[in-house]
Model the fold of this input.
Amino acid sequence: IHARLGRHQEAATAFRSVLATAPDNPRVMANLASSLHESGLSAEAITVAQQALGLDPSLTLAWNTLGAAYNACGEHAAAEETSRAGIARCGEHAFMLNNLGNALHAQKKLPDAEASFRRALALQESYPECLVNLSTVLQAGGHHDEARLLCERALAIRPGYTEAADALWQVADFWNAPLNGRRLELRRTTPA
Done:
């Protein structure tokens, strides 16, 4: 329940409590790894996700968390390898394809990143993070119109989504023009 409510530190504490009584439960380990990653403890999440996969290599959540945690730690080649291994083992899942796209983008493999994000969106079209990630890749390739539409779509799905607003501002800054004849209600915040 804590994880679903975004209380990832509380969820990690609860999962650690369960592991104290059932230390070899790979599903609980996968959930702990996910909560650790979402709490910003990605290096620890890598270790726990690897332990979970050592016990049960079919756990999609563990593969997904491992790829995301590697990306968060700046280990993009490892994230690519892990995401590809997870997809080979568990099939295509939108979250793993998004992780793969992020790893490829970080390594400047833009056509492959675009393909991965598009495959993720084919599986889950209302995935705002992936929409923004694809828009970033498209903008880097000079496809500003489609990038703008993807950001607007992400904001329609999740109003107030800061990353989508920021990406949309970047597209608008490129054109040095208002967005659809108006300025966004969301303003980019800058540190004081």
Observations:
- The longest helix spans residues 76-90.
